[in-house]
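Customer ticket, subject: "Can you confirm the structure for FMN dependent NADH:quinone oxidoreductase?"

Message body: Hello, I'm evaluating your service for our small team and ran a test protein. I'd like someone to confirm that this is what the system normally returns, since I don't have a reference to compare against.
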Amino acid sequence: MANILHVDSSPRSERSRSRRLAREFMDAWLNSHPDDAVTYRDLRLTPVPHITEEWIAADFTPPEALTGDMAELLAFSDELVNEFLAADHCVFSVPMHNFGMPSNFKAYIDQVVRVGHTFLLENGQFSGLAEGKKVLLITTRGVEYGPGSPFEGWDCLEPGLRYAFRFMGVKDFQFIQATGLDLGDDAERRGLNTAQSRLRELVSSW
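Agent reply: Thanks for trying us out. I re-ran your input and got the following:
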């Protein structure tokens, strides 16, 4: 039995293709692993606040010195961090917005990357605290970003996600990308079919 954290970040609901892919994967996964426990978070319904100067001050205050107001500022972040650290597998669906991640998922990352919680800083060296975790990132893109495309090199989504989770100690990544989804019906169908095929394969090998 494993603990699964599933987070959807698209501001769309039923029209979201990243949600659809993640839902299909989770349905297939739970059909094969019925004893696994799932924690689900929808960032559309529970928006993540952006960090503030006061939040930063509280985050870098030793736990024993936190005031009640500081602890309250960090309470939601603590909840997100605990969910992340408790998970064996994490499934994140993240559409590309303007070449990068949606602002709500960037806010999520900012609330989860926490000194003393998901990484350590000792003698000027950083080390992650989330080793041993498997992370699946399901991303959707309106156009193509591969070699030879007009947008080659413009993909700021995968590098940003990869480095954020690697910084927290994650080494086991899977990226499933559905691309070209806004280039017409045929391209959308190809992009979704390719992603769905890879996700089906992952159910038995992840």
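A couple of notes from the result: The chain has a mean pLDDT of 96. The domain at 3-205 is CATH 3.40.50.360 (Rossmann fold). Feel free to reply with more questions.
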